[in-house]
Amino acid sequence: MRMVDIIKKKRNALSLTEEEIRFFVNGYTDGRIPDYQASALLMAIYFNGMTEQETALLTKMMVESGDTIDLSAIKGHKVDKHSTGGVGDKTTLIVAPLVASVGVPVAKMSGRGLGHTGGTLDKLESIENFKIELDNQQFIDHVNNYKIAVAGQTGNLAPADKKLYALRDVTATVDSIPLIASSIMSKKLASGADSIVLDVKTGTGAFMKTLEDSEALAQEMVKIGNNLGRNTIAVISDMNQPLGYEIGNANEVREAVEVLQGKNVYDLKQLALELATQMTLLANVFSTYDEAYEALEQNLKNGKAFSMFRQFVKAQGGNVARIDHLDTLPTASYHIKVNSPTDGYVNAIDAEAIGIAAMYLGAGRATKEDTINYGVGITLSKKIGDQVKQGEPLAILHADSELPKDAIATVLKAFRITENEPTNIKLIYKVIPN
Fold first, then answer.
1. Residue 352 belongs to what domain range?
2. Which of 10, 54, 304, 405 has the most crowded Cβ, counting Cβ within 10 A?
3. How many CA atoms are closer than 13 Å to the CA of 412, on its beta-carbon side?
4. Which residues of 331-352 are buried (b: 16+ CB within 10 A; e: fewer)?
5. Can you give the pTM of this predicted structure?
6. 8 A C-beta contact, residue 364 and residue 118
7. What's the Cα-to-Cα distance from 414 to each of 53, 165, 355, 403, 427, rounded to whole Å?
8. Could you report the per-residue pLDDT of 13-23, keeping only the tens digit for each?
9. Are residues 179 and 108 in the same domain?
10. Cβ(205)–Cβ(241) under 8 Å?
């Protein structure tokens, strides 16, 4: 078998066989196939796409290129949640204890943030002494004993994806739905969950900016999961503005804890309840959607979900006093108001721009080597649909410099103020395959 023949076949919009896909994935992973040939195939896939079967096979080969995590020693039905990334997206901090509060084990391998999206591990590490490094046995024991563990990825999961993603990044082939779907799902499938709920974002702060593209990606990932033996659904949710009011690591922990303590941060609470409901349905804990939703909402009100979160933080070495007294979490030196230049209604907030502003403050990373400042971030004072007067704050920047000009300018540009109140503000667009 020759790589040039595989490239030619896909260039001519023909389907690749299992043997051809295996030859490519294995050969590129171990270095026998050079970058220039892999790049040529990726570009052919970018233009001609892949069939449902091809995409499932590509994902399967990427999973098999490295280690897989065996979670069979964990009692119960393991359901994983994955978000395609957004600004202010701290749902895992709410969803994990919420799902665990009804007896569903949550065994989650998470990542760090890169770019304008924040990583779950970075948020958790803003809690003093929280330990994200657990070996496989510790990870399994924590889930069996406490119903939750969240840890950094260990082992050599989907190394083919790591190499291919780096190549896609420099060859303008990132935004191909089959390649995005196989990249995300290879890591999820290697992580060992029985079922998967995907939170696919759409809008200005999402990877997929249009609902049409987000739905196509969601459909593709659901098909891959189901074709490879994992019951998978996707929730398409809005990212045309940040989720909740807080952006930044310790800020987001505070807001998540407040929701767990009963505060009604509407969009954040509703999305967390939707994702948790779908996860418990996949785990067959409840018979109907309404039964699941009501039980989970009750566990937010009665403190059971918050108790699970405290137990989880303590089990992984975190200082629970920081959770009980939120003002002791890391904070910034300066709190700078960004005021509205005009009267009107907030018609739009560019979520990506808000994320970039938070990154300017030090809440995110431009490269993997960058250090996170846990205390900095942004608090939104207004959201889409809110009325605002000239001189009223749109947001508050939490910074360690007195005048962060780039962040201030970026936040001002992110807000669009209009005379008319916006309508048709949506949070959840669709659940696939429901």
1. 330-418
2. 10
3. 16
4. bbeeebebebeeebbbebbbbb
5. 0.92
6. yes
7. 41, 29, 10, 18, 19
8. 999 999 999 99
9. yes
10. yes
Q: Annotated catalytic, 199?
A: no
**CATH code of residue 15:** 1.20.970.10
Same domain membership, residue 376 and residue 269: no
Catalytic-residue membership of 2: no
| Active-site residue flag, 70 | no
In the residue annotation, 237 being an active-site residue is answered as: no
Q: Is the pLDDT of residue 114 over 60?
A: no
Q: pLDDT, tens digit, for every residue of 244-284? A: 999 999 999 999 999 999 999 999 999 999 999 999 999 99
Regarding whether 83 and 177 lie in a shared domain, the answer is: yes
Q: Are residues 319 and 342 both part of a single domain?
A: no
The number of domains in the chain is: 3
User: What 3-state class would DSSP assign to 128?
Assistant: coil
Residues 6+ apart with CB under 8 A from 411: 338, 353, 354, 357, 378, 394, 395, 397
Report residue 116's pLDDT band, with 50, 70 and 90 as the boundaries: low
Report the pLDDT value the prediction gives residue 109, as an integer from 0 to 100. 83
pLDDT at res. 368: 66
Task: Verify that 250 and 349 share a domain, yes or no.
Answer: no
Residues 367-425 have pLDDT tens digits of 767 788 999 999 999 999 999 999 999 999 999 999 999 999 999 999 999 999 998 88
Catalytic residue among 10, 60, 168, 201: 168
Nearest to 111 by CA among 99, 119, 103: 119
Active-site position among 10, 22, 81, 82:
82
Q: Please say if 187 is a catalytic residue.
A: yes
Catalytic residue (one of 161, 238, 267, 350): 161
* pLDDT for res 364: 83
Q: Are residues 90 and 189 in the same domain?
A: yes
